[in-house]
């Protein structure tokens, strides 16, 4: 399809459109991300305003005055449609632009470093400029990526695993493939988060857009898994660095596993568990082993995570019961592919 097209670094940079979703009141973060995007050399940016207040929306509409109206597209959604709905709209708009060749998906707090996009361009051209190959920028503050490059453990879903845990992985550890050339280093993955994911827009015709039913969490894994399941490759590029301006709620250093923390919203816990279980269900080949992994994960990673977690269940039995009820309902919904039932009020 593109064999007669002369790819070079500049054409790749100019053909890259950043797809960014913002919500709440995060213009101060979004502005820094856009500064990074254009400093890195991207040709355009689509920003989806995911149902912000009118005053915040007004600030967002003024951003093209700062960065240039020809370099930005603003799309305002009347209500917050979650990350799935927001990125559905952002990726769709980016793909519909005639000048877009690659789409660089970013959260509104993923600030690219100056050479991050050039590293993606050089890597992709070095790999043969094949549209089947997708890349992911390296998020320096994200535990998944740090662990990937430290241990070289393949980032994917093991059969019968629950939230990435399986007794099988204790005995059989698959190593990620490595690509190295001209000082560039990449490790292959089965799936990727949205933040930093860079792919050729032709994939939209093959796999469709993000599934809006997910609303929050793991819609990115579902989307990128569709790529690898359809013959594509995903490589994490260590030389393409992003800085997370805000830490994820899931890496909050708490004594309790975040599913049990009362300060966390019930809906976030529910969507996180339901969606991950839904994705993993296609990898379940033995229900007994899968259910064993669920039980072992809950005991090892939650109940017996540490002494404070154990005491929590004795000191706050009612609160613990409410959370475990929520967890059980979310697992049930994921297994049943139930996207209609809202998060329960407990």
Structure in words:
This protein has 346 residues and is of the alpha/beta class. The protein folds into two domains: 9-247, Spore Coat Polysaccharide Biosynthesis Protein SpsA, Chain A, CATH 3.90.550; 250-335, no CATH class. The chain is built from 13 helices and ten strands. The protein has helices at 9-14, 27-39, 54-61, 63-67, 82-96, 116-126, 143-151, 203-207, 219-229, 266-280, 287-303, 307-315, 317-335; strands at 16-22, 44-50, 72-77, 102-107, 110-112, 133-139, 178-181, 184-189, 197-200, 233-244. Strands 1, 2, 3, 4, 5, 6, 7, 8, 9 and 10 form a ten-stranded mixed β-sheet that branches. The longest helix has 19 residues, at 317-335. It is globular and about 60 Å long.
Protein traits:
single chain; 2 domains; alpha/beta; Spore Coat Polysaccharide Biosynthesis Protein SpsA, Chain A; 13 helices; about 350 residues
- Uncertain segments: 1-5
Shape: globular
Global Rg? 21 Å
N- to C-terminal distance: 54 Å
What is the N-to-C succession of helices and strands?
Answer: HEHEHHEHEEHEHEEEHHEHHHH
CATH class call of the largest domain: Alpha Beta
Quantity of strands, as a count? 10
Number of domains: 2
What is the helix tally? Answer: 13
Helix content: 40-55%
- The proportion of residues in beta strands is 15-25%
Mean pLDDT: 91
CATH topology of the largest domain: Spore Coat Polysaccharide Biosynthesis Protein SpsA, Chain A
């Amino acid at each position: 399809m593109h064999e007669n097209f002369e790819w070079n670094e500049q054409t790749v940079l100019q053909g890259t459109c950043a797809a960014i979703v913002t919500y709440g009141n995060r213009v101060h973060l979004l502005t820094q991300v856009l500064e990074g995007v254009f400093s890195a050399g991207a040709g355009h940016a689509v920003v989806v305003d995911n149902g912000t207040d009118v005053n915040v929306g007004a600030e967002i509409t003024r951003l093209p005055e700062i960065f240039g109206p020809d370099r930005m597209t603003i799309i305002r959604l009347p209500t917050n449609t979650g990350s799935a709905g927001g990125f559905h709209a952002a990726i769709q708009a980016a793909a519909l632009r005639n000048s877009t060749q690659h789409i660089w998906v970013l959260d509104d707090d993923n600030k690219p470093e100056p050479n991050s996009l050039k590293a993606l361009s050089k890597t992709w051209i070095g790999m043969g400029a094949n549209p089947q190959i997708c890349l992911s920028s390296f998020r320096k503050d994200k535990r998944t990526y740090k662990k990937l490059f430290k241990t070289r453990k393949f980032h994917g879903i093991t059969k019968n695993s629950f939230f990435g845990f399986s007794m099988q992985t204790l005995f059989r550890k698959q190593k990620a493939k490595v690509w190295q050339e001209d000082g560039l280093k990449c490790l292959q993955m089965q799936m990727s988060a949205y933040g930093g994911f860079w792919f050729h827009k032709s994939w939209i015709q093959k796999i469709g857009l993000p599934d809006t039913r997910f609303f929050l969490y793991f819609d990115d894994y579902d989307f990128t898994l569709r790529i690898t399941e359809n013959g594509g490759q995903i490589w994490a590029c260590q030389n393409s660095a992003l800085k997370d301006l805000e830490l994820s709620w899931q890496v909050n250093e708490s004594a309790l596993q975040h599913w049990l923390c009362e300060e966390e919203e019930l809906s976030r816990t529910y969507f996180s568990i339901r969606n991950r279980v839904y994705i993993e269900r296609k990898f379940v080949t033995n229900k007994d082993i899968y259910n064993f992994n669920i039980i072992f994960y809950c005991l090892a990673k939650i109940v017996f995570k540490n002494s404070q977690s154990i005491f929590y269940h004795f000191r706050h039995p009612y609160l613990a019961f409410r959370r475990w009820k929520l967890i059980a309902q979310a697992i049930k919904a994921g297994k049943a592919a139930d996207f209609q039932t809202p998060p329960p009020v407990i």
